[in-house]
Amino acid sequence: MLKLLLCSRYLRRRKVVYLSVAALALSVALLIVVSSLFTGFIAACEQSAVDVLGDVLISCPVKFTHHERLIEQLEASDQVQAATAVMLTQGLLHLGKGNVRAVQIFGIEPERFQKVIHFRESLRGTGGLASLMSPQDSTMRGFVSIGVVTEPNELTDEYDYARAREALGLRVSLTTGSLRRPDTQAADRGPVRPRRASFQFTVADVIRSGHFFFDRESVFLPLDRLCRKLDPSAAGTYVQRVQIKLSPTAERASAIEEIESIWQAFGESIQLGYNIQLTDVITAVEMQARYVGEIRKQMGMLMVIFGIVDVGVIALIFCIFYMIVRLKQRDIGIIRSCGGSAGAVAAIFLGFGAVVGLVGALLGVLLGYLFTANINRIEAWVAKAFGLNLWSSSLYVFEKIPNTMDWGSAGFIGLAAIAAASVGVLIPALLAARTRPVEVLRYE
Amino acid sequence: MYKIILPLRYLVNRRISLLAVSAVALSVFIASVVLTVMHGLVGDFKEKNHLFVGDCVVSTPSLVGFAYYELFVEQLEAMPQVAAVSAVVKSYGLFTMGDRHSGGVQIVGIDPIRHGRATGFAAGIHYHAGDLASLFEPGYDPNLPGCVFGIDRIFLKDDDGAYQYDPCVPHFGFDITCFPLTAKGALRGLGSVSSKRFYLSDVSWSGLARVDDHYVYLPRAEAQTLCGMGGRDKRINAIHVKFSEGVTPEEGTERVRDLWTDYRENRSGASLAYLMDTVTVSDWKRYRRASIAGMEKEETAMIILFVLVGITTVFIVFVVFYMIVTHKVKDIGILKSMGASSLDVMALFGGFACLVGLCGAALGLLGGWQFLRRVNALEDWLHEKWDFQVWDRSMFAIGDIPHDIEPSVMGAIGISAIFACLFGALLPTWQAARLRPIETLQANQI
Amino acid sequence: MTDQKKIIEIRDLHKSYQMGSTRVNVLEGANLSVRRGEFLAILGASGSGKSTLLHLLGGLDRPDQGRVLFEDQDLRDYKRGRLNRFRNRTVGFVFQFYHLIDEFNVRENVLLPAMVGKSVLAWLAGRSQPKRRADELIEQVGLEDRALHKPYQLSGGERQRVAIARALMNRPELLLADEPTGNLDSATGNSILKIFEQLNRAGQTIVMVTHDERIAQMATRAVVLVDGKTVERRVGQPS
């Protein structure tokens, strides 16, 4: 009871204790903000890859046919929720007077595609993809990503939706690079000839994924019609990529293994030869691994730097408690002279320190949360007040700063702060415990 | 005099002062290292951009380009402020190499000798270094039409960021395709594309990732034909200008702008004069601002981050001074009982704060300077022992970690440290000055 | 030897302090005058306001009511700067707990009033004279061997001697001592009192707060604080 009483009296009376709590809170908040922002950015990178690519990709170095069979086999697995085949090629898009863009062309199966891929929004809503399915209509329709038709505002990073709407229904011209026949070992393989295809399509919809580089240069066309345009003599469609969405209950490692074996069997059946081994079966997250690794490294370095500065805060706590112990030596002498043990004395200060750590850590977590949760508002205010646009999607890929609090690392940092505060108090507590009453109670 | 002696004694005798000095030194050390590196990276990046475009660019954002440039180029070259001029075609195209490799490219049509004089292009060429006249003649067959690709399309980098060049230029052929546009920006007929096969004659390095990965240089006449900008009224998209020594980009750009305004007025009646309406004259910073702004944002963000670190340091200084003043109330009482004024007391502790800031800043800057001198050797050692690099050189277009001390940056950090200390000590100092001697000299005061 | 001329006078002085929720009236109409060359002892029970009276005399505090007149001028009319100069040059304080600067040695502590009164440039231009004065004072109090020692290296009596030397540095017209022997043993206290005696014989005006009868006997005059008022006491008369 005495310990508790002395603890609360000391806490309430010494202003400098509040200051040490504030210093600790500040440093904890800083670490939490850095950790949350980086972790949020990494998560956003990985999630955006999943959103635009699916969970797993089969990426073959050559184009292949009979992909419907592969899709069927994949979807038969419990681990796979949906799969879709995609053909990729590069192209030049002519949008109007002097407006030419280099684009990435995706030949897609609209129905399957919308089961695997998630776009943040489209101007025509979810009905947009249906507009691609017009086999009877001679007019080819496709959609483009928003960055193809309009640039984001330099200061606000917002797209001009009015201008994007003007592109709906626009007739545009597309030309692609050369295209060879599928590289199979089939006997009817004809001579290899480079081809070039130019055609027009109508912009049926404008989509936005939230990923700057994807939104800047993507065009989506129906797979069957695209293949016919690119190679009218070819029978059927051909693709070089299959994008897969796993079921919610799928176990990633075993799912990859299963997909690899399905692919192996399929590749052998269509005689892909050594291209089977050259094919990547990879998760979208793994595709980002190298880039994400660099970001993690930068985060690690910043955390170390700020951690070093925070050692200063711990030293401060040490000094504060050392001062308090020195000032309260008479009290300690009195407690000891009344029979209080050295352990009890030490416990007062250790408890004191733990409370400082706890309160500082909790405040720091709260501060860190408030800052992280409101960082986009703060950034908007800075842009408005100082004309300083700190975040832009062209540099950082995403339109908004990822602002999800990383509670895991916040908890770890909080606990570390409590432990560090206790360590800071340890030596003063030991000094206090070792105080001999007769030395401090002598009248001088 | 006591205002000088006493702070010095406090600094030496009060161990807690060391905490404040250490906190300041640590913050200054970290800030000086990180900001020097960032400043170096930004400076390096800006310089690469500067070399890439020259001092000034007369350009249009439209792919259609503008006509009647030949006489303007002559007039520019006649200006004493101008050292070199290069007229350039720019457009988007596709390249394919066999059936495996294809991609979008930025086509740039140049006169290599002129372009080498007007920009830093010449320094980035590998196989034809010193011989730009034959830049577009592949070493394996000079009769073939040559092209120069950005180096990242052709060669890979090792772990140290060094390109793995072939001893001779690889024998690669590329089909380059482009939309030829009329002067009104329309396609020359539906399905009309221009395509031609070129052969790799050299590679170009600029140090700019987007350029080295996306650019292909062609002879200007070929580019004009490919893009539909040939014919009677040839068109280009940009004119790069390098100024003579002693002429700043700002001054020179102003002159070029005046010249262009006159030139445009004189051509106002020509049939393609409307194409000149979209032409602007910019110095290199303005022309490349979208690219440079990114790096400057990074630097600003880093400075803001370290301001937060600085706030923590100020707080530490504040608490330390609070403790020192609390402990020294007796001294304040003694001084005031002897006639020292409140201002004297503020000067005393203010001087102490300056001293702490000065010592901390000096230590931090010294440490930072020594660390920066050895930073690349340290990174090499870390890379050798633990395969750790601050930036993966195979991913990032960074060479050595910048370590040149910028006196202005160091000075700014040092002065900020001193001000931070003054600010941190302000409240405790002011409170100390307000103390009445009678409050502090009571017998049982603690 | 006293000069009949008054050096400092208090008239109808009132002073109170807030102690938590209670207002404590310490002085309630105290009157006192001090003549040049006098050795005045102020006596009274603990908490009677002796130290408060001394602080008011020295301009360290301001009364709630009444006047403190130095050479017929009210200290309340002094502006801040003049009051500082008054404390620096006219008055010398000796406290019960010495109150030396821990970071300064003996010599520097004695020099302190001279340093306070001068700017850095003025000090650098004319520091030799104060240094001579300090050395004289240190010798006078018998600490010439300890001039470079820090306060923690000195005994209680030695520290009090330093405090006395410091108080005399600027040749104050008035020396105020607040229970200077209160913290010392009797032998040491006696040696300190001898110094005060010598100073008074040389013409120094001294006002000393004490509860020690020996000092009351030693003084040329004694007053007692009773119920916040001063009462004259004949020397030799018990308090």
Characterise this structure.
The complex is a heterotrimer of chains A (444), B (446) and C (239). Helices cover 55% and strands 17% of the residues of chain A. With 444 residues, chain A is of the alpha+beta class. A six-stranded mixed beta barrel of chain A has the order 2-3-8-5-7-6. Residues 179-194 of chain A have low confidence and may be disordered. In chain B, 51% of the residues lie in helices and 15% in strands. Chain B has 446 residues and is an alpha+beta fold. The longest helix of chain B has 45 residues, at 342-386. Chain B folds into two domains: 2-47 and 292-440, no CATH class; 61-278, no CATH class. The radius of gyration of chain B is 31 Å and the shape is elongated. Chain B has a six-stranded mixed β-barrel. Chain C has one domain: P-loop containing nucleotide triphosphate hydrolases (Rossmann fold, 3-Layer(aba) Sandwich). Chain C is globular, with a radius of gyration of 18 Å. Chain C is built from eight helices and ten strands. Helices cover 35% and strands 28% of the residues of chain C. A six-stranded mixed sheet of chain C has the order 6-7-8-3-9-10, with helices on both faces. A four-stranded antiparallel sheet of chain C has the order 2-1-4-5. The chains are: A alpha+beta (444), B alpha+beta (446), C alpha/beta (239). Chains A and B meet through helix 2, strand 2, strand 3, strand 6 and strand 7 of A and helix 2, strand 2, strand 3, strand 5 and helix 9 of B.
H and E order of chain C: EEEHEEHEHHHHEHEHEE
Mean pLDDT of chain C: 87
Q: Ends of chain A: how far apart?
A: 31 Å
Helix content, binned percent of chain C: 25-40%
**Which class best fits the helix and strand makeup of chain A?**
alpha+beta
